[in-house]
Amino acid sequence: MGKQPFKLGIHPINWVGEDVREHGADTTFEQIVDDIQALGLTGTEMGRKYPTDPTVLKAELAKRGIQLTSQWKSVLFSDPAYREAELEAYRKHVEFLHEMGSTVISTCEVGGSLHFDPRRTPNEKEVLRFDEAAWRSLAEGLNAAGAIAQEYGLKLTYHHHGGTAVEQPEEIDRLMELTDPNLVYLLFDTGHAYYGGADPLAVLRKHYDRIAYIHLKDIRQEILDQARASNADFVTCIRQGVFTVPGDGCLDFAPIFRELLERNYSGWAMLEGEQDPAEHPAYEYAKKSLDFIQTLISQESR
Hints:
By secondary structure, the chain is of the alpha/beta class.
């Protein structure tokens, strides 16, 4: 095995869908964490099957040698009317992660999103892009949330995400320009970068100094092409199998790992598949992907 300065973990979304609720609906928390332990991994994010009582969750993870790395937090900062309530909810989320020993908080703006924005109606078809006022409000809200995270020793890591108003490369750039680099960091996601039209390696190089957390996700090009041709929305793309684990799709991970190794990235990198586990069993796919990653790291470390 080659030199690996960063920590490798896995997201429970490989076993149980978050946006597609039927994926892995019958899978239990115990099965997920037992599989993670069997894979030899020591980091997991929060999932919807996980116990929410910190005492219970800590005990279950500790006996398997697993650390809770983060938990997704949706925010609606682009509309100033929501800011106060959103920051209050953010603090509660940070308090939970702090108690669990996590160091980053995965954060994503839902304003404008077709699927996640509570103000949208089901018959709408497009993601709404932001005007100047919404961008400014988003940046101010994220800076305030980042300051809350910092109080507890955590970093706000912004998750650029398919199907939201911050998914395209120029939107990632804009967010990084508008926010305080000491308060707002980037969650670099290889699959979402590509889905949003970016070259993942270019995003990694351009914003490396802001990256504090990583999701490793692959894309099935033929599914993406079909989805684009039929103008499918984000959740439909997941149902159709657009995402998979590294090594099973079209992304070239060799230069990505080379970059991480050369720069001595030392944070968490989480394996993500986000596909139907009935068709693509989570443990088997993760095992193959880990073998693929270790082979790449060994080659790059020579």
